[in-house]
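Reopening this ticket.

The earlier resolution said the output was attached, but the attachment link was broken on my side. Pasting everything inline this time so it's all in one place.
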Amino acid sequence: MTRRPAVGELLRGWRERRRLTQLSLSLQADVSARHLSFIETGRSRPTSEMILRLCDELDVPLRERNALLLAGGYAPAFPDHGLDDPSLDAVRSALRQVLEGHEPHPAVVIDKNWNLVEANSGLALFADSVEPSLLEPPINVLRLSLHPGGMAPRVVNLGEWRAHLLTRLERQVAGTGDRAAAELLAELTAYPGGLDREAEPQPHDVVVPLRYRHQEHELSFLSMTAVFGTPLDVTVAELAIESFYPADAATAKFLRSL
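Inline output:
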């Protein structure tokens, strides 16, 4: 039988992931370094309040905070409702308002694993001519973007765009240690398309654009990510809105014509 890590081991893992020493974390959390050492080695059992205080300083996601509380022998502190739960009616309504208000520009709602939760009609622009299997639920937007049967053949700057997306996913894996994200990263890295991590930016460049070929048009988009500012529910904390904006006048004109 596999032994479950103790709460002290898990906290030490998060501290090391954040590249903090025991001393620096103890100063941030206003706790003695000796007591923190005892917690990490299992010589002292932390209170639920101490676990949450350390989680605040370590920026631990809500789902993992619940796991740490359970490992310490306490009940989870954060609810985890399904998105269809009546308590999240206001959240669903807000998401739909954002998606609909963004049309005709593409926008999607994704979960922590980059799976599609909801989208507006603008997504059809990117989903055109992709393999049907990639549009079967759960639709993973990174797989849709980089799979050779997905958007990839029509992404003009594929090496640059792949590097941008994979770097984001690498940071997520490094920051959370999430196994599903690590498996997705390994899958996507194996796709063809190259990596252009050292593309020379032009003086007027401020972000990495998505340059996408649609029929006879070459469209250019900027992407923006938005999250809920003060989530107290695990599901809500793991949602993000990815919105695409025209990066040039020609793309804006084309989208207005849709």
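Reporter confirms the inline version is readable. The chain has a mean pLDDT of 93. The chain has twelve helices and five strands.
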